[in-house]
Amino acid sequence: MKEIAVIGFGVVGGGVVSLVDENQERIAQTAGDAVHVKYILDLRDFPDSPYADRVIHDVDTIMNDPEIALVVETMGGVHPALEFSTAALKAGKHVITSNKELVAKHGAELMRLADENGVAYLYEASVGGGIPLIRSIRTSLATDRVDAINGILNGTTNYILTRMRDGGISFDEALAEAQELGYAEKDPSADIHGFDAQRKIMILAAVATGYIADENDVYAETMSKLTTADMDAAKRLGGAVRLIGSFKREADGVSVFVCPRIVPGKNPLAHVDDVYNAASVAAALTGDVMYYGRGAGRYPTAGAVISDVAAALNGSYRTESVRTWENSPAGFVKKFADSKNRMYVRVSGASVQEVMDAAHLVFGDVAAVPGTPAGVSEFVTSLMTERQLSEGLSSLPGKVESALRILD
Amino acid sequence: MKEIAVIGFGVVGGGVVSLVDENQERIAQTAGDAVHVKYILDLRDFPDSPYADRVIHDVDTIMNDPEIALVVETMGGVHPALEFSTAALKAGKHVITSNKELVAKHGAELMRLADENGVAYLYEASVGGGIPLIRSIRTSLATDRVDAINGILNGTTNYILTRMRDGGISFDEALAEAQELGYAEKDPSADIHGFDAQRKIMILAAVATGYIADENDVYAETMSKLTTADMDAAKRLGGAVRLIGSFKREADGVSVFVCPRIVPGKNPLAHVDDVYNAASVAAALTGDVMYYGRGAGRYPTAGAVISDVAAALNGSYRTESVRTWENSPAGFVKKFADSKNRMYVRVSGASVQEVMDAAHLVFGDVAAVPGTPAGVSEFVTSLMTERQLSEGLSSLPGKVESALRILD
Q1: Residue of chain A minimizing CA distance to B265
Q2: Number of compact structural domains in chain B
Q3: Number of Cβ pairs < 8 A linking chain A and chain B
Q4: How many other CB atoms are there within 10 angstroms of residue B94's CB atom?
Q5: For the packed helices B81-90 and B100-116, what is the interaxial angle rounded to 10 degrees?
Q6: Residue B180 and residue B76 share a domain
Q7: Three-class SS of residue B16?
Q8: Span A294-350, pLDDT tens digits
Q9: Which residues of B are catalytic?
Q10: Is A266 a catalytic residue?
Q11: How much is the ipTM here?
């Protein structure tokens, strides 16, 4: 019997506690031993919970109990999750987390600490909820080389984009709907401005390379300025708008960034709707592999935590690749201005002739967009650096209504 | 240094040998030790190969060499692959295979033998080429319960279906094209009649349940009778025709079968084109997870073999779930006649009035299909057993041009 503790009795933590109870046999088979939740740490009391008698308020009870082999941290945020995780690892306890912010900001030091103490620090649930993405990269693709990842990593924004396209409603209306359904939080800024996806693509890039980027080096662009006219343009281009987190190995470093993209219809990511998440992983030998599933939710996320609990307790984590990360050296992540993209551009307030003349002048060859509505000009640039794109945009006549990168 | 042998120097075996050479460092890191191919067993000689000096013709050289820790079997077919695999396992050597026919027919006994001898018998490459599907189910989803799998498991037939739809060409034309491109073999019967997909869904169902079905209990229907009229009907129903291998846990047993299906557009499998493979896995906690990638090809398949080589040598296979299969007891796989499906039906040679009257009489409520062309009648049944469907079809007036199950 292995005793474990759960820190943070919210949606995911609560899911973990009930899953451990309800799936005894299957977990014991995989973990190699029965698992039992001895403590639940939370600031609150839960007098009506069937687990009320396990709820404690003093973290030291966990840290000082040699019976506790593993701590599940599902509290979120950096503090005190960092301090609690550090203490648990130093006490020789495995730590399993769903806390993407902590993993993105302090994963490197926590993994090193875990390694020094001969225990695991695992984080499958921090990206893509129930999608078994991280373990798959660290085991099945460990003998391959991951060269690129493009992911729909945030379900809230994907729901908003799906509703804007299918319902013809504005961003504000779709956001309000997502909030009513509980898909978006009252303060949705981490989702809609791309910060959540930013942390997740940082984590995936680290799983692929062993280096975790500095948040300040990872460009993230809000999707809150998108309009139904953008959805329509994407449809006319045969695709759909998606908020994409991208990682790519290039000759002069890696590119890691998040922004709304027009995804062509031939890319399976264009067909990932509603709150689903997906990640397309390009590996040198295996080619493109796509993973698709529920990116959030109590049971998918708790299920991912449990799979990490089993990997820690049965020792298989020791054979997974990229067991520790290094903080990325300066210049490892390319400056976003040096990234190359193709861009869809829509301009109003100037004649089509004026706009297209200027576009040819500043961007060279540009492609027409089928079915351009009256009153605006549209075109798609060829591949060029963000610096060139942004200089080009600023020298167009009229008003740039939209400038969306295309996922190639 | 771990010495290994490769049996069968064809497309996949050749890929394995060159990958082991070219990816020394990454493989050593994951496998825990450097890996070297000492012998290549084949009937032929390869005087021009850089590996000519390792080619041998006597299997006993491998079996009697205590240095050989692992054998890769990429020869295909049951004999002598079964005898060679048996001998290797008895000699305490791990066996890694890409041979789906052998795994489907003799996997249970080979896994038991491996277990008795404290070694691995692994088969990731037998299904879905480079898609890391089997290991993901056996690790990440091991603490969950897989309730259903629907897969596009054969790239050749998916290419044919894509070309029939997009090119408006007949089955025969699309098959000829696939043969020219090397996607289909001269004798394509294993692909087009569903036998290849049948073996693969049997293997996946066994990974999910621990029981391998008897081939005779697994219904497989050819896709060679499909027409462009079927592609058109699927499009009018908002979907696409795909050859689907299905596994489902039901109250009275499991259903396992292969047949062409109309896949609705909201299902991501409808958007898997060309030679790509995909499998949608429904797990109790995690929900639907889809895996998508190259189902065949030298490097994807060889890459999957190498990931198994690493799992065998680093010992992590010991923590994977469903390490051995049992042969399924009688009645474990439900009779296909008792499976329930909805069906699209197209009838010619009788008036629409006659056909629809009869359809209502024998099938009860049926749904209309948008845009039915002149000269035929079309409808979609509600959910009913295959027995009811087949009785109903035989009592319709006119000629049943097509009867395609719908994937719900």
Answers
A1: A271
A2: 3
A3: 180
A4: 26
A5: 20
A6: no
A7: helix
A8: 888 899 999 999 999 999 999 999 999 988 999 999 999 999 999 999 999 999 999
A9: 200
A10: no
A11: 0.91
